[in-house]
Amino acid sequence: MSTPGESRREPLRECVRLAVECYFEHLGSHEACGLYDMVLGEVEAPLLEAVMRHTNGNQSQAASVLGINRGTLRTKLKRYGLNGTSGR
Predict the structure, then answer these.
(1) What is the pTM of this model?
(2) CA distances from 67 to 5, 13, 27, 56, 76 (A)
(3) CATH topology for 34-88?
């Protein structure tokens, strides 16, 4: 089984699937809890960082790229401590 981050490019969906399967393999006999929020947190923060870099910190443009309103974007940036993310 391949793992996320290998040199070949894989669709994002496949990378997420592989990462979650790897998580379950390493979990062993322990019970999974809060997986949904954990995965969203792991994906959402780098997504926001990349979009903010792409838009040079322009929150209106970033919100448009993401398909969310600027207020929601500001809330998410604050949640992840990315308020000053500008790509510089």
Answers:
(1) 0.72
(2) 27, 19, 34, 17, 13
(3) Arc Repressor Mutant, subunit A (1.10.10)
